[in-house]
Amino acid sequence: MSRVRTWLPGLLLVAPSIVAIGVFVYGMLGWNFRLAMTDKHDEVSEGRFVGLENFISLWDQPRWHISVNHAIMFTIAFVLGALVLGWFLAFLMEKGIRGEGTFRAIYLFPMAVSFVATGIVWRWLMNSGMEERAVGFNRLFDAIGLPQWQWFRDPDWGMAAMALPAIWQMSGYVMALFLAGFRGVPEELREAARVDGCTEWGVYRHVVLPLLRPVTLSALIILGHISLKVFDLIVAVSGKQIITDVPAVFMWVAVFDSHDPAKGATIASYIVLSVAVFVIPYLIWSVRRERRS
Amino acid sequence: MTAVAAGRRRASTGVRIGVLVVFVVVFLIPIYVLLVTSFKPLTEADPGQAWNLPRTWTVEAWRVAWEKLAPGLWNSVLLAVPGSLLSCALGSMNGYVLSKWRFPGADLLFTLFLFGMFIPYQGVMIPLVQLLVGLNELTGLQFYGAIPGLVLAHVVYGIPICTLIFRNYYVTIPDELIEASRVDGAGMLRTYWSVVLPVSGPAIAVVIIWQFTSLWNDFLFAVFLTGPQSWPATVMLNNIAGAQATPYSQQMAAAILASVPTMLIYVLLGRFFMRGLMAGALKG
To answer: Which positions in chain B touch A248 (Cβ < 8 Å)?
Structure first.
């Protein structure tokens, strides 16, 4: 009884948050899944339970295939691009360099600005106007003798171009993560490896790189989950065009333009599932790791 | 160290700085474009001069952009200030309990909270709209389509990250301090108020910056949950820029205006901004 008295006040203090998370996160995810399993294809009908019908029939729609393919291409380009660039910048700075604080601040600042605001300038930079009408990168490339591009309007590689602003925005963050990782490697470990006759590259390969694995995993998870739900960047750069469609934009169209709640909920469910399959194992892993240490 | 080795090391440092400077230039290109274009008059808006500095500098675009964007900026203030303060209060209490006044199952609960940090908001969007519409009917107040509903959404979905930041910070307070307070007969709230809260400064700063930035920059919740009267700056900016007739100079001036508050926070409080980011990576 006295033990209950010691922890009960704490539980009471957290109770409002427990209720809020229960209702707004888990309750609404469940609500959304249930809606996705009904035939409520307009605003007024009741909606009967139809099981997984919507989840299957979505794959009959060409637009869904397009948006899934786009999401995959965007994710590959963005995650790889931000990871490699972020790692590279951290690698250049890891041993300490004059003016490091300034470099870090400049690489990080795009994170402070919204996708909507930067989307405006990137839409201009990646304008597909050619020849005399060229602005942005195309005008610049023309001036220095590089070929002009269609950028995000390219039917094949457009989504890779769309990843450029996202890489610009997030690679500074990845740099900061890796820099923290590099600095977390004890100097004694490196020294010991050198004494054992390792070359600088050997030290990096056998001592530093393995210790960077947790940081790399964190960065992958964060970038991946941003990528799968990407929305405001796409809207700000290209609007609701099919040529740059992704599931999150398709969902917006389903809800507001087609007025089809069940379809919107189905798309939303797929986005949730795609994030959950790798975030849940990651969370379990990282909580276990913390408990061990 | 031999002279050759020292020379090689100096050369490699030079190369590294050189590469870093090149990337600085690349990173600043969008900022250059934003600034330069925003000061151009309409007559210089032709593609041929796209990358040049303005020949005549004018703040005309800024004036128009300010006129168009001002209501949205004010809405964003009404959203971000109370929103981040409320998030801070909730996160602080949760973090305190989950690190220093634990109850059975606290670990499991914390993990369940954390998942909320990663859920794509699309997955709760439609039910959230329905719930807020229901609240409107039930209370007769404006939740859906107005700022209060948007604040509610941000505060609730901000609970996971705010709790995480405060919990990771409070873990570093020695348990003996809490024990001593208990021995002196202080209860949970008393201990929180006179022992924990006074040393919470850095965590409060991190959470306020983090939440202020994400509330200010949010677009998805705003576009689903607000109406024209309560559009925050991001939605209004998107609409201004989406209109074909709006000249580039005005679009870019408006984009800068909408970014001033978060940029200021970044410049003035960059260190705390950084800590908030690291907390987001699940590192203490």
So the answer is: 120, 122, 220
Residues 6+ apart with CB under 8 A from A245: A63, A66, A67, A70
- Residue B188: Cβ-neighbour burial (10 angstroms; 0-12, 13-18, 19+): buried
Please indicate if any CB of chain A lies within 8 Å of the CB of B47: yes
Confidence of residue B2 (pLDDT cuts 50, 70, 90): low
Whether B237 and chain A come into contact, CB under 8 Å, resolves to: yes
3-state helix, strand, coil in chain A (%, to 5): 80, 0, 20
Chain A residues with beta carbon closer than 8 angstroms to that of B219: 114-116, 231-232, 235-236
Q: Is residue B24 part of a domain?
A: no
Residue that has been written with the tokens 């930041």 in this structure:
B165
pLDDT band (50, 70, 90) for residue A246: very high
Q: Which residue in B104, B157, B216 is closest to A24 by CB distance?
A: B157
Find out whether A17 and B159 touch, Cβ atoms under 8 Å: yes
CB contact (8 A) between residue B122 and residue A31: no
Per CB-CB distance under 8 Å, the chain B contacts of A283 are 111, 114-115, 118
In a domain, A8, yes or no: no
Hey, of B52, B118, B190, which one would you mutate to test binding to chain A, going by the most A CBs within 10 A of its CB?
Answer: B118
**Over residues B61-73, mean pLDDT:** 95
- What's the total number of domains in chain B? 1
Residue B184: inside a domain, yes or no? yes
Structural domain includes residue B110: yes
Q: ipTM score here?
A: 0.90
Comparing CB atoms, the residue among A133, A221, A265 nearest residue B126 is A265
- Kindly report, residue by residue over B71-110, the tens digit of the pLDDT: 999 999 999 999 999 999 999 999 999 998 888 888 889 9
Confidence of residue A43 (pLDDT cuts 50, 70, 90): confident
3-class SS of residue B86: helix
What predicted TM-score, i.e. pTM, was given to this entire model? 0.92
